Amino acid sequence: MTQATAEGSADERLARRDPLRRLLVRPEFGALIGAVALFVLFSVTADAFLQTSSFSNVLYSASTFGIMAVGVSLLMIGGEFDLSAGVMVISSALVASLVSFQLTLNVWAGVAISLVVTLALGVLNGVLYVWTRLPSFIVTLATFLMLAGANLGVTKAVTGNVASDSIGDMDGFQSAKGLFASEVGIGGVNVKVTVFWWIGFTAVATWILLRTRAGNWIFAVGGNADSARAVGVPVARTKIALFAGVAFCAWFSGMHLLFAFPAIQSGEGIGNEFFYIICAVIGGCLLTGGYGSAIGAAIGAFIYGMVNQGIVYAGWNPDWFRFFLGAALLAATVLNHVVRRRAER
Amino acid sequence: MTALVKLTGVGKGYGSVIALRDVSLEVGAGEVVCVLGDNGAGKSTLIKIVAGLHRHDTGTYEVDGRPVAFASPRDALDLGIATVYQDLAVVPLMPVWRNFFLGSEKRKGLGRLDVDLMRRTTRDELLAMGIDLRDVDQPIGTLSGGERQCVAIARAVYFGAKVLVLDEPTAALGVKQAGVVLRYIVQARERGLGVVFITHNPHHAYPVGDRFLILNRGRPIGYHAKDEITREELTALMAGGAELEQLAHELQATGTTAAARELNEDARELGITDDD
Amino acid sequence: MRTPTTRGRLLTLTTAALALTAALAGCSSSGGKKAEESTSPAGGGGPRLKIAMVTHSGAGDTFWDIVQKGAKAAAAKDNVQFLYSANPDGGQQAQLVQAAIDQKVDGIVVTLAKPDALKDVLAKAAAAKIPVVSINSGADASARLGALAHFGQDESVAGEAAGQQLAKIGAKKALCVVHEQGNVGLEARCAGAKKTFGGSMQNLYVTGTDMPQVKSAVTAKLQADKGIDGVLTLGAPFAATAVQSAKEAGSTAKIGTFDMNKDLIASIKDGSIQFAVDQQPYLQGYEAVDGLWLYRNNGNVLGGGRPVLTGPAIVTKDNADQIAPFAERGTR
């Protein structure tokens, strides 16, 4: 009877050895197909889309989502959500700005303090989640609301206005801008530095996921936390670290905002958390955790940026802008799903 | 030879409820001890004591001849007592080799995982136990239930288990799948491990077991070596144990001993006719 | 070097807060915060009024911050206790108005972005004999819903002014950047601008809460259509972003905007932004509170039943210097 079992699974195994099929079952493959399809669509319908400068702009748009999507996708693979991510970006930028301006410090000091504060917020999310044992959806919804309120309240209390003061003329601004918001000329095209950070973060996250013990633990706590705990994986620590990872990305995005735009409006950022999650989901992350990839999230962000700007390049009727956006996202996600299912069959 | 694990007169109560009473058990290297019993017989309490999840109240628990009182499953694991739970075995979406090494990953410099070593080891370890997986990268969820149990068992063996405690590894499996697991239990025994095999199925227990402990309502109702008992007797004992419980209820309900005796007879007959 | 000062201020604040708490705990009927407020230099010296302002503002909007500052200035002058609340949702704004009625305020200031949602609750205010003035949006619905007066900018008129300015700076093909799709006021601005502009004008919709996306969308549009030589944004922060976008796209488009803030003044001075159409939100808040106070104390009504326009006031390089200090203060 054991013989029969071996034979029964032999067919499956043969199919799995096919390298093409192996590519097809990768979490990011569906998103890749979707990205190519959208790219072709916009290349055909929008004349300006294929210019290198346009492509650079699309990449920039994608990178601002993509950097966040890195942290968010890791967290989602670990089985959790962070609804406070969008607002945390603004909190981070406001902290750096307010600290630097109010205390007349070198901008870098504000940047460093902001990093500490933002990471603490991420750890707080994680610790609250672990302590309360409530779904992260609820916990981070609470911190989302609190942060949104604090952004406004603190800014108003400190500056008397609802936007941060410009720190553009302060010490360290130019060098910080170089790190967070500069441009790099490549072949006559200026590419935003965020694009390179985005690629870099994605590469690091991919390495962590696939080639380190931490990555193994991330998949495990998202896939089956009880099993992971039973074999000695520190589940709570891993989850807290993942929330801190999102916070780190939020800090970086916040620094980009701070150095790319003259002032931070304290009410910004609300709603973006969903776009980060959408990027991760388009890229193949399961909403239930345990499955996905950072590369997929990067492709998801690329799709999102491409749709966002492609509609403008194509000059489609602006009244329907959001409709097109929604339809394109739906198409990409469905395609992703169909491809994966066919491949798994 | 000293027994790897030896329980003598072990008992455990939860508040006023006595879950386990006066249980003795001995597992040596290369031995399989089967613990049989119906639901509520005390099997899971026994397993929790052996695994270090709960501490026993009475009696002694010895490992390698030394009395122990574990504070956590980690302590038990450190002494080579590994427990494979029925549901807590694996993370379904993760590749086989990642599951195999989960929590005890092999690393080379700079925190990098030694992926090749782990892949190879997984393949070899499974092969040594008779499971031929050519692709250890497939999600473990795509394996059959029996194969999954086997991976979990092989993992425990690889990481130095001397005694395997298997909690109903065949319960949710079909006949063929259960066969895979049973064969694996034999493999483990041949490698010199002690095995505590918890099951409610005498047909699974009899072919692989060296000794059989039958529990009923927290008490041992039989502890036999294989040559002292036949499969039929074992089955009857199991079924009888189950029926005894029913009998007790009936007695309470009717208060007539005559009827109870009749029921008892019926139960015995049923138990035996059930067998073949 | 500001550290000690800030710390000192914090200490003072804490002390004040503690003192206040102590006073409240003792249930003092004189002195404390109330006394402090009543001794403020009241303009009319009439009885202390309580006036509520309920707007459709979202959180953290500079514009509404300035409206409040104007209202508070008038409140301080007129010896008015000023209450502010806001919700962008029409139904919830109505609930806030109801709350003000329940508090038996002496006057209500509302925005009529969603006039139908507020119709019933304003009828209740009338029944409770609470005078209402409207500000900002809803000029045409104001009188119909029983408001005494309306202080605001007619968005179409303001748009027309912006269109004229765009034509004046020599633009032929312009872009109107709408940062909140479906906002009637913003649409009216673009429509008004289109009317007087003369050249061709199209709308671009962007997500106002995400600045990088605003930037890339405007960049994309300018890259896609090199003929665009004028950009009109409908809020001050977006103008600064449009300047970056134009630079990035290699476009020479000139940029004008609605609304003001202090950074914008600097940009107008250095010529990167050509003009701003200011609807003077400070005036809206100030006049509304002052108008209610005048009505209560002297029976005056401003505007003769027609909207009182607080804008457009055009800010260009020519008058930027004059306005700069006020913008720096956060009241322009």
TrEMBL record, chain A:
Chain segments annotated as transmembrane: 29-50, 57-77, 83-101, 108-131, 137-154, 189-210, 240-262, 274-304, 320-339
Membrane topology label: Multi-pass membrane protein
Record's subcellular location: Cell membrane
InterPro entries, per the entry: ABC_transp_permease
KW GTP-binding (keyword) present: no
Protein name from the UniProt record: Xylose transport system permease protein XylH
Domain of life of the native organism: Bacteria
Alphabetically ordered keywords of this record: Cell inner membrane, Cell membrane, Membrane, Sugar transport, Transmembrane, Transmembrane helix, Transport
A GO MF label: transmembrane transporter activity
Task performed by this protein: Part of the binding-protein-dependent transport system for D-xylose. Probably responsible for the translocation of the substrate across the membrane.
Gene Ontology CC annotations of this record: plasma membrane
